[in-house]
Amino acid sequence: MKMLDKTWSKDVFEVSQLAEVASRGGECHTDGLVHVVRELGDVVFIVLRKRGGVLQCVVDRSTGVDLTGVKEGSALDVWGTLVEEPRAKGGYELHVSRLAVLSTPAAPMPIILNKGRLKSSLDVNLALRPIALRNLYERAKFRLQEGLVRGFRDYLTSQGFTEIHSPKIVAEGAEGGANIFEVDYFDKPAYLAQSPQFYKQMLVPVFERVYEVGPVFRAEKHNTARHLNEYTGMDFEMGFIDSFEDVMVMEANMLTYTMDLLRREYADELEMLQVDLPSTDKFATVRFAEAKKMVEEKYGRHFKNPYDLEPEEEQLLGKLFLEENGADFVFVTHYPVKKRPFYAMDDPSDPTVTLSFDLMMRGVEVTTGGQRIHDYAMQVEKMRSKGMDPANFESYLMIHKHGMPPHGGLGIGLERLLMKLLDLQNVREASLFPRDMTRLRP
């Protein structure tokens, strides 16, 4: 028996180390997947795709380097000298003295990956997702998705939040309604979680501030460009709030931190995708009823749904606040009781509305949140008023029965946030492997 040597000894360099490697003489070893091969007479250019970007490698045939098996998709080990080349991506290229083919693909690429944006349709892109994601433009989208999650986690951790991981197989739906996936759980009915709402609230008396990043399931039979049946929720809940505006302030500061993080550390992806980051200088707020009235008066449009903002209404509201106030973000507050779930606290000064909000980003709703009911009698009464049997929620009501502080929180749809950030036309483009009514593969 021997003990594992934990020293990391792999001597390959990454794209972020180009200048450092060149400064010490340039002799180096690296690896990567072949992104494209271009043959120009006696010179062959091989672009390697690496985790940090791409590296142009140059092979002079007169050196005798064996190129057998080198094709798009091959995995290579490469040795050579790194030299400055302003025309190459990153300002350097590798003059190859030796290479080893680690693997060779068994079939040619089904789509062209190396011509900037994919030219294929969305359906083809999603059907060939494991290959399509190798496209640098597609990959960059999900690097930014990582940045959004990283900003969410980093900021909330800095504010004393604890990360949690709640069950995704549950005994009842947190949002009510029929849009839940039922599963056979050892001959008992169970459901895929619509949100971590109950568990977030249960853990407020434990940790006071909690957050979670995890899957959310909605069995709605829709086929729109802005809905998925499984998406990633970024949720937080916080105790001892004075008002639901405390939750809004927390989110505004988190988004400010996150956009600054993207600007600092994801500049290459922002440039490639030509992203115009939203301004976080201003977060407008408007009551729901006033928002509907403003849109109607400004644009001469009347919308039928009295309890919610319709998609076009959201777009017009975003346009209005951007043009008149320079605000990319708008908090719409005090939604009607009929629109909000049973745990939303009613406004004491107007019991027809709730202490809740949606956050609109450039005319699309990306967040729903608000203050929750913390009083036991009030929560039971609210359940009964919505035709619910409190006996079915015994474990949830345990927290109200045995002491809860004033609290509130929110949920953000990660894919929808990314869709709007990148100005994509379909939320499926913002999901690595989207799930909708027809798609279970890949």
Structure, explained:
- The chain has helices at residues 18-23, 122-127, 129-132, 136-158, 197-207, 244-265, 267-273, 288-299, 311-325, 376-385, 394-401, 414-422, and strands spanning 27-40, 43-50, 53-60, 75-84, 92-103, 162-163, 169-170, 182-185, 188-192, 209-217, 230-239, 283-287, 329-333, 346-347, 350-354, 356-361, 364-371, 407-413.
- With 442 residues, it is α+β, with helices and mostly antiparallel strands.
- The strands form four sheets. The chain has an eight-stranded mixed β-sheet with strand order 6-10-11-18-17-16-13-12, sandwiched between helices.
- β4 and β5 form a beta hairpin.
- It is elongated and about 85 Å long.
- The chain starts with 17 loop residues before the first helix and ends in a 20-residue tail after the last helix.
Task: Please give a handful of descriptors for the protein shown.
single chain, alpha+beta, eight-stranded mixed beta sheet, five-stranded mixed β-barrel, 30% helix, 442 residues, elongated
Percent strand equals: 25-35%
Q: Reading side by side through the largest sheet, how are the strands ordered?
A: 6-10-11-18-17-16-13-12
Gyration radius (Cα, Å) is: 26 Å
The count of β-strands is 18
Quick structural gist:
Helices cover 30% and strands 28% of the residues.
Annotate the secondary structure layout.
Blueprint: H1 18-23, E1 27-40, E2 43-50, E3 53-60, E4 75-84, E5 92-103, H2 122-127, H3 129-132, H4 136-158, E6 162-163, E7 169-170, E8 182-185, E9 188-192, H5 197-207, E10 209-217, E11 230-239, H6 244-265, H7 267-273, E12 283-287, H8 288-299, H9 311-325, E13 329-333, E14 346-347, E15 350-354, E16 356-361, E17 364-371, H10 376-385, H11 394-401, E18 407-413, H12 414-422
Parallel strand pairs: 3-5, 6-10, 12-13
Antiparallel strand pairs: 1-2, 1-4, 2-3, 4-5, 7-9, 8-9, 10-11, 11-18, 13-16, 14-15, 16-17, 17-18
